[in-house]
Design goal:
Strand content: 25-35%
Strand order of the largest sheet: 3-2-1-4-5-11-10
CATH topology of one domain: Rossmann fold
Helix content: 10-25%
Order of helices and strands: HHHEHEHEEHEHEEEEHEE
Distance between the termini: 28 Å
Oligomer: single chain
Largest sheet: 7 strands, mixed
Amino acid sequence: MGRPGYGGNVPAEVRKRRHHRRMTDATLYDQPLYDLAAPANPLAETFYIEEARRRGGAVLDLACGSGRFTIPLAQSGLEVVGGDLSPSMLKRARTKATAASVGIDFIEMDMREFDLPGRQFGLVIIAANSLLHLHDPHDIRRCFAALARHLVPGGALAFDVFVPSVRFLAREPNQRHLVGRFMHDELGELILEETTDYDAVSQVSLATWFWSTPDRPDFFVIPLHMRLLFPQELPLLVEMAGFRLLARYGDFDRSTFGGQSHRQVCICELA
């Protein structure tokens, strides 16, 4: 799961279909609940560490959130910069980095347009579906243009996004589905459910997440909107943004990408 907040322009007809109860101005990423729904993934950590070492130099972790990948990268001995749009996420990331005894430069930035004067990187990563929060192809091109300015010669972009599921898109819009059950230190047992809708014009999946406790149903209701990147479309968008797709794996174990793959794990270089 990745980071909303970079959502781009959503058509008016899509906005009208957002009927979220008890909505606040916050996003999921302003809440500690995010870390429950996005646990550590050692296989993904190993993949990104291997790619960073292969390229050499510093690493830029875009949409780094609370340091889910930034901190393991730093713990492996790499020089890492973490960038995110959410000040609250960055605050949690700094706290976690201090607890892990690693030095990381966390910077508030919008991945659609950023400038770090004098800094270049051997690898830029956009992990855990975060690229899908750029709903407009123009925003994807802006993002890729910004990161291209920060790559050393021979540097690379690595990212992962899920493969869209036709069965998932065929769900009834108002039907709830269980995402998971979690234990929170203060709130106790938490139940996460979601509804999904789909706008075929924008290719945006319109999910709503409902967090509940046994005695507080729907105490936190939040949108999670993601632009779907279909396998045939992804290489074209990468090419339009001035890159070429070097490798696409079906998972972080570098398995061959195919019809049964659930992920698109991609390595790209400047064209």
